Amino acid sequence: MLGAIVIITLLSLSIGSFLNVCIYRIPRNISIVTLASFCPHCRSVLHWYELIPVVGFLLNEGKCRTCLEKISVSYPLTEILVAALGVFLFFQYELSSMFVWNFSFVLMAVTIATIDWKYLIIPNKVILIGLAIGSVLTLLLFPVRFSSNVLSSVMSSVIILLILFFGNWLFKKETIGVGDVKLAGLIGFYLGLEDFLIALWVGSLLALSYGVLMKVLKKTSFDPKLAFGSFLAVSSSVVLIFSATIHKWVETWLILLQ
To answer: Which of 46, 63, 94 is the last residue of a domain?
Structure first.
């Protein structure tokens, strides 16, 4: 058991390091395969020991060895987050099909949430890769669910598309982006329509709470554009991981309301 946890931790840290590459390069249309890892400031190529997740950051004291510019702490934090999620899911599902399914979605959610938060975009490339991985995993692990997953994906996108049209008409400005429509399709494919609706509700509450908090703290009437995709990616991950518990809560509340 301990050996498996160590392997999952090291593997997850490495995956987290790769996600950092994706998060930086994909929005900038830089290849994530052909180019060696480099400093985001001076573009100097990193040595092998600088690529060791977390350790490389600590060895260089959070700075580039060449230009001495500070490297964002988000890099090791992403690696640690992915490792923590990997170990948590391993404790829940061990090395099972559900572990592979949930972990693959969580990795995509971390990537999308971070990119949307930093750049207010959800790249098509990430969504397409996510749907491709989801399709392959479904056919390999849960082939009977493929058609229902596709249907849930389409319906989830349609729901967000309707919200987009209604919101734009009601407020006379852009409320959510087209990227959120595509993200909804990915989430619907993995979670199913019912859990997508729960994730949408939770994500909306999170986004609304954050918007209100920012207004209070800044004491301004300015309405900043929220990275709604980030909140939706986080909420959908929570709903996916704790689906059984959430369904029990919903059933309990429905019984109490009767």
So the answer is: 94
